[in-house]
Amino acid sequence: MKINKSFTIQFIKIFFLLYPVLSAQYVQAQSPVKLEYGFNGKYSYTERTNLSKYVNGKYTGLTHRETRANMKYEGENEEGSVFSGFFYVTEETLRDMKNVSLPLDEIIPTEFAVTDRGNLVFTEDNGYPRMRNFPAFPEEPVKPGDYWEAEALRIIDPKNSGKTTEMPVYVAYTFSGTEEYRGRQVHRIKAKYATRIGKYSSVRSMDPELKEAHGTHDADILVDAETGVVMMILDRLDETFFYNDGGSIRLRGSSAEFTELASMTEKGVLPGEITRIADAAQKSAEASGISMPESIDDTFEGSADGPGQTREPEPQTDDRMNRLLPSGGGTGGAGSAAGSSGESGGKAPDEPFTVDVTEQGIKLSVRDIRFKPDSDEILPEEEWRIDAIAETLRLAEGMNFLVEGHTASVGKPDGEKELSIRRAKKITEELSSRGIDAERFIYTGYGGTKPVADNSTAEGRAQNRRVEITILGAE
Q1: Low-confidence ranges of the chain (pLDDT < 70)
Q2: 473: Cα separation from own chain's centroid
Q3: b/e map 224-253, b = 16+ CB within 10 Å
Q4: What is this structure's pTM?
């Protein structure tokens, strides 16, 4: 083999010129880093699980379940940084991978402290998050290749029945190094742990039928280098649960968890911008000569409840919702003075929505929204209000939205609830058609169970027919 001497000499020169730089980078890469938690802001959390499900050995399809949370820093206690917030759990559904809004299953409050090692100490524990003390950070600094073990706790419910089991797991961690993720420096950690329930397992279960389980988990974890916040976890899993009746459930696939650090928007800025949008929308609607049609009661004919009759007046009302945009006072929100079912003609548009700052975020209440009776079809005269809401939601970059439907109470609870859910979903579709990502929406409906006015009057029922949209985490 003939060697080109000129090339060899040139390579040696370049190597010795670059050696100090390469050596410094190598030493820096091998320098130990301290993994610890030190965040004191707001963040949002999303967990998406896509699993192939087998019941008694038979494949039953792909299931999708999603959990979102908004958490806010509350201060320090003897354990560490205290956070409070809400978890929003969507229903388990088959999914075709299209961007869609998701039906809400539960809203779950929680409060916990995070130690500098990443462990959670709860002051209000309602079962979420499902995985606790994961990842756990070692006491000593680590460098690539270092290994440690720690105990975590999983709360499982394979049948999605509400009967949970607390299962300790022992996790083996390996530190891979530091890299860049979405413009931030992060530490990559590999983790492995097993699903083990059996005769000698230490578990606390509310499900007496769960007999044993086994399986594996293989996870990649990215931890923000500055704050210690877990930015992403990708968990590949395959586990099977066995029951006393001989049945089994196998779940195979992956779950992905993402954390977004909220931008530090000054408190009260967003409500001021909402006021500006609402004011401009109302003036534009008035200038256009929009006339709102009369408000008509739903009848719920053909609902599962059968014949119904108007309920007794509901005593409770939500007085917080009486603060209006843009004026901020009074009780005449959108639709509150709308024509009743016995009134002829239309009326000029009032404010597009009322506003309230709640624990969950900024809530917009669209009172007496005009749908066709017993339908989720929105009347054309409501377009200006939907446009104003869409403009408002565009201000909330990176935030998610909860849409809740309500009806008047006329003694048909099943039909009322079903219609309220359909109307909430319809609102998400209308807002998505105006350029807002459908995946940012979750929705539910409460029928006539949460009145804000007297159901014994036409005017009160009109106010109770509403849709509420909360910008989660906004203040």
Answers
A1: 1-30, 92-99, 263-266, 302-304, 306-346
A2: 10
A3: bbebbbbbbbebebbbbbbbeeeebbbbeb
A4: 0.81
